[in-house]
Amino acid sequence: MVISNRFGHCNRLGTALDRIERDPQRTIRREGGPEGLRSMAESAYSFKWTRAARSFDATVRRNDMTEIERIEDQIKRAYGGRAWHGPSLKESLAGVTAIQASGRPLPGSHSIWEIVNHLSAWTAVVTQRLRGQPMEEPAEGDFPEAGSADEAAWLTVLAGLESNYEVLLAEIKAMDDSLLDEACAGRSVSRYAHLHGTVQHYIYHAGQIALLKKM
């Protein structure tokens, strides 16, 4: 009975999280305030009943996965979805318009457009380093400037990020576990660190984008 109740908590939590994006105040009131949501979340996560948690556990418990496959799985989750931490990079970018992307709600901060340019450029740098080509930073700069608030240009930028991500995945698939501890393109940082750093990079900026969308 306890497990059944907690499974029910998880289903309610998933529904609440879906609603909270559309109408946060109403959802919080409906679930008994912030404490109600928090209690429900703790119950669900403590028993790992969320869809993402079950999927994650099923993946990491596969004994036949190589380390490269595990890293690939983590990069896919951070970029595309089914991550345990919350919305992935792609999920955070869903629905962002060119006007939103080029806006700067916080003085002195980067826009979403600039962040996407930054992620796309550094994803390409990681790929080049894995291929043995030393690169200090992207040729276009750390945070390439945004273009005009044009929807077609924004879609092109998103497509560029997706393309660079797919190229990186292909490079990872071609790697062998024995190469992970090797220095990357003559640098002191290993291939392993570059790949896990990419996961962290996607997660960090996904959270930043999610906050900027709400402003």
Question: What's the layout of helices and strands?
Answer:
Layout lengths: L1 H21 L1 H7 L2 H14 L4 H10 L6 H14 L8 H5 L4 H5 L9 H19 L20 H23 L17 H23 L2
Helix pairs in contact: 1-2, 1-3, 2-3, 5-9, 5-10, 8-9, 8-10
Description:
The protein has ten helices and no strands. It is 66% helix and 0% strand. The protein is mainly alpha-helical. The protein has two domains: 1-49; 64-213, Up-down Bundle (Four Helix Bundle (Hemerythrin (Met), subunit A)), CATH 1.20.120.450. The chain is globular and about 50 Å long. It has helices at residues 2-22, 24-30, 33-46, 51-60, 67-80, 89-93, 98-102, 112-130, 151-173, 191-213.
Distance between the termini: 43 Å
- Helical residue percent band: 55-70%
> How many helices in DSSP terms?
10
> Uncertain spans, ≥5 residues at pLDDT below 50?
1-11, 41-50
What are the main properties of this structure?
mainly alpha; Four Helix Bundle (Hemerythrin (Met), subunit A); 0% strand; disordered N terminus
Q: How would you summarize what this structure contains?
A:
This protein has ten helices and no strands. It is mainly alpha-helical and 215 residues long.
